[in-house]
Amino acid sequence: MNYLPIFIDIKQQPCLVVGGGDIALRKINLLLKASAAITCVSKECCNGIEKLVKDNKIIHIEKAFEATDISAQVLIVSATDDSDLNAQVSALAKTANIPVNVVDSPDLCSFIMPSIVDRSPIVIAISSAGKAPVLARLIRSKLESTIPHAYGKLAELAGNFRDQVKAKFNNIEDRRYFWEKTFSGIVAEKVFSGKVDEAKADLQAQLDGSTDSGVGEVYLVGGGPGDPDLLTFKALRLMQQADVILYDRLVSDGVMELVRRDAELIYVGKERDNHAVPQGDINQLLVDLAKQGRRVCRLKGGDPFIFGRGGEEIETLAENGIPFQVVPGITAASGCSTYSGIPLTHRDYSQSCRFVTGHLKDGSMNLPWNELAVEQQTIVFYMALLGARHLSEQLIAHGMRGDMPVALVEKGTTPEQQVYVTTLAGLPDLVENTIIHAPTLIIVGEVVKLREKLNWFDVDND
Question: Hey, which residues does 115 pair with through a beta bridge?
Fold first, then answer.
């Protein structure tokens, strides 16, 4: 190691920043996060520093730097564009054994500022020893996307219970096991979900021995329309910690690649008139697995609450007292239209949008056609490929123009995406004379005209 990574307590300690520009401001803001008592020395200062002075957050001395300015400081940062001045500040600080950082000059530093992931009191520092600060920032951005902000609250919770845990478990191994289970279990998930008070109560109950730890939890997770990059951070976290995954046929292979490697996988997919597992059995299976103490991820394509029958599943979970979380996903209408260059609304073409399922629970397509067959509206039909002729006939019969633009998006947002553009009158012939595979979304409306102009997703065969 070129540098020893350490964390310094500078709360209310005098710290000096030499320089008054934007770079100095960034360093001042970082020091303020650590509650330092900051004095800034410069002939001029930027608007941001002026505001901090006005708000009584720092002291600014409007003058050139002098050697006596370093006295009584516990830390010094030089952030000027004057290389001679920076070298002078560095030499004086080192002579006085005061830690000093000179921006963009590692050779003049006795310490360097790392890139930081701040989940206080959890703080992660990433350093390239001054060799590649941009690379350090890129690494930080990757960590930022995978570490929930609520980890700080979880650390605070653990700190509040640390003495109780130490008193209950004399053996350090027992304490380690307890905390590992807590940080990867329901208590942690309640913190991540904003239910901090419930998490405190559960943790206290565990320590008191008055809780039934035999019940697991169910996560209803929206897997999005297919592209794994569209998953939410929360969805990814729960997918990677679940003990068992119940997934359907609309979950793409790319999304399935991201689930926990050693999780048990149970396929519960449905096709029209061919349900691998009936819905009632799926509901009960979720309950049974959770009662075994397992963390269960019910992974669905799109969003669990948009034609995903997630409501039916959580009804059963609630009736059986099973803890659950619902994680929204990008629904197919949004994902597929975006990847096809078709905005769902547009001031010139559509002021409303309707999401409609192509078949009801009894298998029919008994829809409010009068409400659908109106101008200035986009209609997105889910699961309507087999009913395309009926859909076309009914909309035309209820007053919609036969030349209304229509787009069919097959396997949207995936590398296999295909987009077919036709008219409402031409829809039946297209479907009957072209091999189009489910899942396919049907978009009806004037906004389809914008595809040629706005399409950014490169598809070879439209």
Answer: 126
Read off φ and ψ for residue 73, nearest 5 degrees. Answer: -90, 145
Cα–Cα–Cα angle for 424, 428, 433, nearest 5°? 130
356 DSSP 8-state letter: E
Catalytic residues: 248, 270
143-163: b or e for each residue (b if 16 or more CB lie within 10 Å)? ebeebeebbbbbbebbeebee
At 322, the amino acid letter reads: I
Question: Global pTM?
Answer: 0.71
Is the model's pLDDT at 271 over the cut of 80?
no
Averaged pLDDT for residues 357-375: 81
What architecture is the 214-330 domain classified under in CATH?
Answer: 3-Layer(aba) Sandwich (3.40)
Q: Which CATH number fits domain 14-113: 3.90.1710.10, 1.10.510.10, 3.40.50.720, 3.30.460.10?
A: 3.40.50.720
Whether the predicted pLDDT of 286 surpasses 60:
yes
Pairing of strands 295-300, 122-126: unpaired
Q: Is the pLDDT of residue 214 over 80?
A: no
Domain chopping of the chain, boundaries = 14-113, 214-330, 333-454
Number of other CB atoms surrounding residue 377 within 10 Å: 20
HSE-CB for 150 with a 13 A CA cutoff: 15
3-state secondary structure of 441: strand
Tokens representing 455 are 């399409």
CA distance 363 to 203: 47
**pLDDT at residue number 169:** 92
pLDDT reported for residue 379? 97
* pLDDT tens-digit readout, 273-283: 555 689 999 99
Domain 333-454 classification at class level: alpha beta
Which pLDDT does position 292 carry in this prediction? 92
The residue whose two tokens read 């001031």 is: 347
The answer to whether 145 and 187 have CB atoms below 8 angstroms apart is no
> What is the average pLDDT value for the chain, to the nearest integer?
91
334-365 pLDDT tens trace? 999 999 999 999 999 999 999 999 865 555 68
Q: State the burial class of residue 413 (Cβ atoms within 10 Å of its Cβ: 0-12, 13-18, 19+).
A: buried
In angstroms, the CA 399 to CA 261 distance is: 53
Q: Where are the alpha helices (DSSP H) in 108-244?
A: 133-144, 151-168, 172-183, 186-192, 196-208, 233-239
Contact 298, 217 (CB under 8 A): no
Query: Mean pLDDT throughout 187-201?
Result: 90
Helices (H), 14-146: 22-33, 47-54, 83-95, 133-144
**Ranges assigned E (strand) in 315-432:** 324-327, 352-357, 377-382, 405-410, 418-423
